[in-house]
Amino acid sequence: MTTIAINEPPPPPPIEQPKPAPKPEAIKKPEGPAAKKAEPTPVVAPQPKLPVPSPIPAAKVAGTGTSTQSGAALAGSGTGAGGSGTGLGGGGNGAGFTPAQKITKIPNQEYRRLVSVSGMERGTVGVSIRVTPDGIASNCRVVRSSGNPVADGLMCQLTEQYVRFRPARDPYGRAVAQDVTWYPNWWRP
């Protein structure tokens, strides 16, 4: 075996990087005056072109008045008139209002059924009903019991089923709802 020595050529010398060019020096400028500080413009509402009246009427000068009492007059046609009147909420006799009138009744055979179901030979129940503008009895509730809950409940049911009214009328003739209290009674003949 023979060895041969091979000499490698030496590496090339390192390449020197060129040095960067020096930065030019900034030219110094003289400083100017400071800027103005920003101030917001005040917001001002323009004056109204027409004077707006106060929504609350008030006397220009305070005074004691000469009336011995306050409130509405004894009669009038406005709303809430005292004494008597025709306005909405008018006091007094309520001229022009017509109350509801009962025009039908519970049939006799239903009273016989009431006697047989309740076991009461006779009795009276006080019921409060709402008479609708159509004359129908609704919203029945017992205001004076007969003493028998079966009779009381059946009387409300029969009242709503059979009893009809001529509806109440306001002063203008319009049909209106009205609460009515009714005391039907029964007895075995």
Task: Write structural notes for this entry.
The protein has a domain of 87 residues: Fusion Protein Consisting Of Minor Coat Protein, Glycine Rich Linker, Tola, And A His Tag, Chain: A, Domain 2, CATH 3.30.1150. Helix content is 13%, strand content 20%. The chain contains two helices and eleven strands. Strand 5 and strand 6 form a beta hairpin. It is elongated, with a radius of gyration of 50 Å. About 10% of the residues have low confidence.
Kindly list the characteristics that best describe this protein.
189 residues; alpha+beta; Fusion Protein Consisting Of Minor Coat Protein, Glycine Rich Linker, Tola, And A His Tag, Chain: A, Domain 2; three-stranded antiparallel beta sheet; two-stranded parallel ribbon; 11 strands
Give the helix/strand layout:
Blueprint: E1 75-76, E2 84-85, E3 101-102, H1 108-118, E4 122-124, E5 126-131, E6 137-144, H2 149-162, E7 165-166, E8 168-169, E9 175-176, E10 178-182, E11 185-187
Parallel strand pairs: 1-2
Antiparallel strand pairs: 3-7, 4-11, 5-6, 5-10, 8-9
Helix pairs in contact: 1-2
In short:
This protein is α+β, with helices and mostly antiparallel strands and 189 residues long. It has helices at 108-118, 149-162; strands at residues 75-76, 84-85, 101-102, 122-124, 126-131, 137-144, 165-166, 168-169, 175-176, 178-182, 185-187. Helix content is 13%, strand content 20%.
